[in-house]
Design goal:
Structural class of chain B: alpha/beta
Bound molecules: flavin-adenine dinucleotide, flavin mononucleotide, FE2/S2 (inorganic) cluster
Strand content of chain A: 25-35%
Order of helices and strands of chain B: EEEHEEEHEHEHHEHEEEEEHEHEHH
CATH class of chain B: Alpha Beta
Number of domains of chain B: 1
Oligomer: heterodimer
CATH superfamily of the largest domain in chain A: Nucleotide-binding domain of ferredoxin-NADP reductase (FNR) module
Helix content of chain B: 25-40%
Largest sheet of chain B: 8 strands, parallel, barrel
CATH architecture of chain B: Alpha-Beta Barrel
Number of helices of chain A: 6
CATH superfamily of chain B: Aldolase class I
Chain lengths: ~260, ~300
């Protein structure tokens, strides 16, 4: 799968929260070939500090107009600089990255579950799956009312949306996974796709294993290059021996993995 | 304008190479540009047997650079010979294999195999800071460098480059060790040993605790060392450490480097190497110099 570098023109900025931004950029060549779960690497400056590119998931692809959208939270200096860009500026991106993408083709009743800022890569998945006439059940968890984003967007691309907050201040009360569990028990789910904080991912994996349901997770790891050359972004292969652990790269074999294939 | 150089018997169309461990075996970058543009490709550190590398996290960003503790993950020389070498051979560029091992016997056996492959040269990695039992021990003393280099020299007819670690008190000593053992060239520098602490977790960010520092942050150290080495030995020096453009490359060449290599710079701009070649040409043009060889070592000290 070819990857490319583009100076992508920023055509729209939407501030979803104080510290969460949605950028829409012109990247026709990249969206033409991207798949749900893939990401891009953004260089936020043409100087050498901060040095590395930042990996950010593709949120939405408007293939018709060649627009790529991504959403990021301001965490440190890289995302801070990025958030200062204005409409009309160019954003230096490389993409699409990652060979491990969400694959739902063999299934019909999908559970898509995300937590916090981990929900961003799930939108394109839900949208595409719904367009392919899959039954899309989406479960989104947030800490509380203040953190809820993209409710309408996910509603439009889900057959059923379950939005939950840990403290019950908005939507359902409790962890999103509890509601997924109920639906699994009702026999509504035949496959699971997850992205979010590690504790959530681990719980989802356990649930999937217990119920013998195939499950894919999208993982994060610190990256050097993002294109598969530095071998910096490794995760351990679950079945490899403890005294001779084997690794695969998140930027290459991932970021989406079969949940039982890797340790996380 | 002439950009051709003869580095340690390797005839390169220009002095720009890409550094070991930052370019894989070339496949990923071949999606961005024709590797035939490069003076040479230096492969990922390759060992006799496959190595799985260190526990993650393996990389982190630091001011104007990064730390890595990959631990020489590589598929081993047999796999390289069968799968990656045929791919690299399709390009009109020189192929230099970065060789690493744990023992002198490892290095010798590996170089015996490399000697029979269609490659242009071997770069001995005596300097990786991330493998405890290995290279560092050989790489930090005159005797150590001389011993491994001599052993390898006996089985290797191809040009032999020795890559030096900067984690020493006097790099001219290890450089002389390589020269006295019959090396054809030197490359410097490998990464500087460093550490980054996550102050919230009160733990080093790298699982290995320490790692090798690279990127523009180390450039002044590298330039100084290249200058010292070039003064101390007669064999040519390949300069690297923080190069991200033609100006950086020229700086190394003025300090005494005959060739240059680009490492972590490849991560921030996939086109950095071809751009660096153009940058060197621009410099030569601006200064009315016809031959790139005429800038090597031409710094005038104060
Ligand atoms: C495959 C992938 C997809 C991602 N998708 C998104 C997304 O869609 N939206 C979003 O807001 N965030 C996403 N992230 C996390 C995002 O990359 C980090 O929040 C961001 O790199 C932080 O950079 P900074 O300059 O703000 O922080 P700093 O603290 O200044 O970053 C320092 C270094 O650490 C790295 N780093 C810090 N946090 C992370 C992290 N969680 N994962 C990997 N590297 C990190 C940075 O890239 C940088 O190299 C994704 C991460 C990965 C690996
Ligand atoms: C991720 C990474 C992996 C590396 N792996 C190797 C290696 O296998 N063998 C080696 O001799 N040097 C290795 N190096 C060192 C580089 O080749 C180079 O000497 C060093 O990074 C300094 O150059 P730079 O500042 O341009 O990156 C590695 C560097 C990085 C960043
Ligand atoms: S980040 Fe370099 S190999 Fe994945």
């Amino acid at each position: 799968m070819p990857k490319m570098q583009l100076q992508a023109k920023l055509v729209n900025i939407e501030q979803l929260k104080n510290d969460i931004f949605k950028f829409s950029v012109e990247a026709k060549e990249i969206v033409k070939i991207s798949k749900p779960g893939q990401f891009i690497e953004i260089r936020v400056t043409d100087q050498v500090e901060p040095f590395l590119r930042r990996p950010i998931s593709i949120y939405n692809m408007d293939k018709e107009n060649g627009i790529l959208e991504f959403i990021f939270q301001v965490k440190g200096k890289g995302t801070e600089i990025l958030s200062k860009k204005q409409v009309g500026d160019l954003v230096d991106i490389i993409g699409p990255l990652g060979y491990g993408t969400f694959d739902y083709s063999k299934y019909q009743n999908l559970a898509i579950i995300g937590g916090g800022i981990g929900i961003f890569p799930l939108y394109e998945l839900a949208k595409e799956a719904k367009n392919n006439n899959k039954n899309v059940n989406t479960y989104l968890g947030f800490r509380n009312k203040e953190f809820v984003v993209l409710e309408k967007e996910f509603e439009e691309v889900s057959d059923e949306l379950c939005l939950a907050t840990d403290d019950g201040s908005y939507g359902k009360n409790g962890f999103a996974i509890n509601f997924l569990k109920e639906d699994i028990e009702k026999g509504k789910i035949d496959s699971i796709y997850a992205c979010g904080p590690l504790p959530m991912l681990r719980a989802v994996k356990d649930l999937a294993v217990q119920n013998n349901i195939p499950c894919q997770v999208s993982l994060e790891e610190r990256m050097g290059c993002g294109i598969g050359v530095c071998l910096g972004c490794s995760v351990k292969v679950a079945k490899s021996p403890i005294d001779n652990p084997q690794y695969v790269g998140v930027c290459k074999a991932g970021p989406v993995f079969d949940a039982t294939y890797v340790d996380f | 304008m002439n950009t051709e150089i003869d580095f340690a018997g390797i005839k390169m169309k220009n002095p720009v190479t890409v550094a070991s461990g930052t370019f894989g075996y070339g496949r990923e970058f071949a999606e961005f540009y024709d590797l035939s543009k490069l003076g040479a490709v230096i492969t990922k550190g390759t060992s006799l047997k496959p190595r799985n590398g260190n526990r993650p996290s393996r990389v982190c960003e630091t001011p104007a650079g990064m730390l890595n503790s990959i631990g020489l993950q590589n598929p081993g020389v047999e796999y390289f010979a069968q799968n990656d070498l045929p791919f690299l051979r399709k390009f009109d560029t020189k192929i230099i294999v970065n060789a690493c091992g744990n023992t002198i016997e490892d290095y010798v056996e590996l170089c015996r195999i490399l000697n029979n492959l269609e490659i242009d040269a071997v770069e001995l990695n005596l300097s990786c800071p991330n493998v405890c039992a290995g290279c560092m021990a050989f790489g930090t003393t005159y005797e150590g460098v001389k011993e491994v280099t001599s052993a390898v020299r006996k089985v290797l007819d191809k040009p032999l480059i020795v890559k030096l670690t900067p984690n020493v008190t006097d790099i001219t000593l290890t450089a002389k060790g390589a020269e006295d053992a019959g090396a054809d060239g030197i490359s410097a520098i490998n990464t500087l040993l460093g550490m980054k602490i996550d102050i919230e977790k009160r733990k080093p960010v790298l699982a290995n605790n320490t790692g090798g520092l690279s990127g523009p942050a180390i450039k002044p150290v590298a330039v100084r060392m290249v200058y010292q080495i070039a003064k101390a030995v007669k064999i040519p020096v390949m300069g690297l450490g923080g190069i991200v453009n033609g100006d950086d490359a020229v700086e190394f060449m003025l300090a005494g480097a005959k060739a240059v290599s680009i490492g972590a710079g490849n991560f921030i701009d996939p086109y950095v190497a071809p751009k660096t070649i153009e940058g060197i040409e621009d410099y030569l043009e601006r200064h009315n110099i016809n031959d790139v060889n005429d800038i090597i070592g031409k710094v005038e000290m104060n």
